[in-house]
Amino acid sequence: MLLKGYIWLLLCYAQNARSNLIEEYEAISRHFVLPEIRTGEPLPVELGVDRYSGCICRASHDRQLVVCFGNYECTRFPQVKIQSEILRVRTTVMVKILRGQLNTLNHLKILEIEANHKLQYIEPGIFENLKNLQHLSISYNTRLHSINERLFEGLSNLRNLTLVNNGFNNILDLTPAFRPSILPLLRWLDVSENPLEIIPEHAFHPMKGTLLRKLDVNLCRLDEIHPNSFLVLKNLKELHLGDNDLNSTLIGDFLNRMMIEGINLTNLDVSGMGFRKQPPRELMNIIARSTIKSLILAQNQFEIIHDDAFPRMPNIELLDLRKVLCISIEGNAFSPSKFPNLKVLLLSGNNLPGVHKKHLSDQLLLLDMSSNKGNPANPVYYEIDRDTFLLCKSLRILNLSFNRIKSIFDYTFNGLVNLRILSLENGTIYHIGDGTFKSMKRLIVLNLANNPLTATENLTSSQFDGLNELKMLNMQNCGIRHFYDDDNMFEMMPNLTHLILRNNLLYYITAETLKPLKFLQVLDLSQNLLISWWRPLFLVSGVKPKTLYFTNNKISHFSISMIEDISYLLENRGNVTVEIDFMNNVFLCECSSMYKAYLWLQANGTKSIQKFFDDSNFQCSSPDPWEDRRVAEYLSSIRHLRCLVYQKISNVMVLVWTAPSLVSIMLVVSVVVILYKYRDYIRYWLFLAKLALGRNFRKKTISPKISPTGYKFDAFVSYCSEDREFVSEMLVQLESNPPNLKLCVYERDFEIGSFISESVQTSINESKYVILVISNNFAKSQWCRWETQLAEYHRLFLEDGSAYDPLVLVKLGDIEGKYLTTTLKYLLKTKVYHSWDENNTEEFWKKLRKVLMKNS
Q1: Shared-domain flag, residues 720 and 845
Q2: Are 756 and 668 found together in one domain?
Q3: Which residue, of 165, 291, 572, 830, is most buried by count of CB atoms within 10 Å of its CB?
Q4: Is residue 580 domain-shared with residue 630, that is, in the same domain?
């Protein structure tokens, strides 16, 4: 994703040669250096099934994006009534799109018709009413083999047209539809991933007079392009030919003809062409004489980049050498004498063992050396020479992500006085020296995600000294357990606006930690171990972010402090939209947890906080009757429950039990002291008692049952109703095949009218083995938990040191840790269990049958 961001960066750079360009692609790159932090559903508004087409449609919160997708009933183009700017129609089974079906969509600016695998025909005139459309994508429709030359009539304002990965195999069948008389404002045409193979001389003649500036024909199996093919495209600036089978001589021929005709390209993509050992010298000489500023040579094969690999290329501002299998770069390969205007150098995805001073040009603005891990067969730590960046005073963006960087020190980044963005994601960094970032006074974005920062040390303020201008900090998945208030690292970052701390080990955070962050706008604390807090965080600290994520934590209820914080964040925000997300927590919807919060909301709740709870979607995790139901629904139903009675009883019980409790506590303390003092004697007595009971009582009651004829059933099966199909298969496999075991299942073998608890106990006692079919639904079921506890007691009662163990565990799929009881966790850790394997069912039943036949 980060590399995609840089591609956009580069395009921006090549198209706009202005002095303030670096600010433009700094803004773009922030979105790729920091992860997407929105955790909610991107299309939360359900529009239902469109009756005309049968398609299912959804929309974004602001209704500006609508996506309609298909099922087997989606046979026509949907008739969307919402006045959105963007419409995406995907994965339908429509065969045709007919004239008139889009007449009501004149408000659209972007339309995408993609991945409709049965689409074969689009009728001309279909777009006649879409005067406002600026971007159109008809892509990934593999049965669409041709288009009519009048298809795009009416799209007088269309600027971008994407026809990627359809069934087109002849460029001459397409270009008549792109005539300037039909598409007068077309600037970008993408026909990549179509099997065109050849671009003949007259391919673009129908487009004579076009204003097209960018043409993409990547991955089109091209092996021939006539030298005169592009001469009609007088305004062409960007030409992308990557991943084709073109030789360097052919490319040089049409570049020379374009230069003669005055077509001044600024961007050329010849990535993935199969160039080996070194860049083709003659082609490089032609490019050096051209106006090309951005040269993309990625995914070719240049293991060693020698000093003479490139001629003097005075116009090149961007050089892309990503994934060229490079293992070594000689000292003067990118020297200013050869690349006097080089601003962007991309060397990611290679096998370089480090970054060294000799690789760098002093005038670089962006350097990407990410994903250089050395030889995969012998990985080594990535080296950064001391004072490597000492002369890189112009560098603004540095990407060293996905390298095996062991540690960084106060001399590592010396010289980067103008650096704005630094990415060290996935660097295996476990040590940050004091003053490491002190030289980077203008740093705005720092990405330290996925590094074991706290593996050997704590995070201190001295490590982050100098980051006074920092606005965005990403410390996702760094193993952080807590922050120290007496040595608050955030005091070094008073201007921070975005703080990402997701997927760490935080179980609390304090108001003192947050106090320095007065300008904080986004705080992501999702996927931690946070519990409900008892002192206000944001109200006390004065920090008021507009986006706050607490998803996937261990929050069980809303304390008064939490509600006060939420109220503080929502109040007096004007037109600012505030987002607070508590999805996927472990809310306990019971009177003891929620009643006080309910009373506070009734007495003090404002309209904004009432609306927050009414519109929320976070759900209860227990008890069973409220599982997967909205917390807001529980809060609104409290008045109809017996929480008031519970509260009164609780108050009375406090008075009744206060005095006796003190006496009881004293007695308990005394007993504990005595037990602790004589603990060695007590253990010995218990051992003797167990030994005596095991010999005498078991000899009288249990031993006779060890024989196969002493039991009514071979095994009792404990399972939840959701796993009924699996148990039915178990009955067939074990009872119908030799040695024809007899199992006990409650749906078949329990006596009608009997009490379930008594029947379970009786059946366990009458069965030689107890099979627990453990699944996620089993772990959530209260009945199954009770049966597990009963089976464990039965096992302990029978235990006398022999190899016989009546408990057999069968595990179905993965089980969420939050549903596992202490007993289940203990059993799964201490006993060998049978895991269901759909790919090897015969072996599974064979092993299970063998276990149940032991001691027979």
Answers
A1: yes
A2: no
A3: 165
A4: yes
Hey, is 45 helix, strand or coil?
A: strand
Which of 342, 366, 473 shows the shortest CA–CA distance to 418? Answer: 366
Using alpha carbons, list the distances in angstroms from residue 74 to 65, 71, 79, 190.
19, 5, 12, 28
d(CA 734, CA 720): 19
Is residue 805 located within the same domain as residue 743? yes
Does any domain span residue 627?
Answer: yes
pLDDT at 207 exceeding the cut of 70: yes
Tell me, what CATH number does 604's domain have?
Answer: 3.80.10
Average pLDDT, integer, range 198-220: 96
Q: Supply the angle between the helices 591-604 and 643-677 in degrees, to the nearest 10.
A: 140
State the sign of the Cα–Cα–Cα–Cα dihedral 223, 225, 227, 233: negative
CB 433 within 8 A of CB 463: yes
Model pLDDT for residues 575-602, shown as the tens digit of each residue = 788 999 999 999 999 888 888 888 888 8
Helices marked H in 461-543 — which ranges? 511-514, 538-541
Q: Which two tokens stand for residue 493?
A: 């970052």
Three-state SS across 821-834? CHHHHHHHHHCCCE
For the ranges 224-238, 251-265, 561-575, 639-653, the lowest mean pLDDT is seen at 639-653
Domain boundary among 635, 666, 688: 635
Give 410-434 pLDDT, tens digit per residue: 999 999 999 999 999 998 898 999 9
For 523: left if phi > 0, alpha if psi spans -120 to 50, otherwise beta; the answer is beta
Residues whose CB falls within 8 Å of the CB of residue 254, separated by 6 or more in sequence, listed in order: 225, 226, 227, 228, 229, 230
Could you give the 3-state DSSP secondary structure of residue 244?
A: coil
**pLDDT value at 826 more than 70:** yes
- Do 588 and 539 lie in a common domain? yes
Report, in angstroms and rounded to the nearest whole number, the Rg of the chain calculated over CA atoms.
35
Query: Closest by alpha carbon to 722, among 787, 779, 638, 661?
Result: 779
For every residue of 689-718, DSSP letters joined together read: HHHHHHHHHHHHHTGGGGSGGG-SEEEEEE
Return all residues near 817 (Cβ < 8 A) that are at least 6 apart: none
Lowest mean pLDDT among 23-32, 234-243, 736-745: 23-32
Helix 2-15 / helix 21-33 crossing angle, nearest 10 deg = 170
Domain residues for the domain of 669 are 645-677
Residues 338 and 279 sit within 8 Å (Cβ to Cβ): no
Average pLDDT over residues 439-448: 94
The pLDDT tens digits for 717-767 are 888 888 888 888 888 888 888 888 888 988 788 777 777 777 787 788 888
Instruction: Tell me, yes or no, whether 622 and 667 share the same domain.
Output: no
3-state secondary structure of 673: helix
pLDDT at 468 over 60: yes
Q: Which two tokens stand for residue 27?
A: 């803004």
| Total domain count, the chain | 3
Give the chain's end-to-end CA distance (angstroms, integer): 61
CATH code (residue 807): 3.40.50.10140
pLDDT for the residue 11: 36
Q: Is residue 791 part of a domain?
A: yes
CA distances, 559 to each of 106, 556, 594, 610 (Å):
50, 9, 8, 15
Task: Based on the fold, state whether residues 594 and 659 are members of the same structural domain.
Answer: no
Q: What is the DSSP letter of 470?
A: -
Q: Assess if residue 657 is contained within a domain.
A: yes
Distance CA 719, CA 784 (A): 7
584 and 625 both lie in a single domain = yes
Do the domain assignments include residue 784?
yes
pTM, rounded to two decimals:
0.71
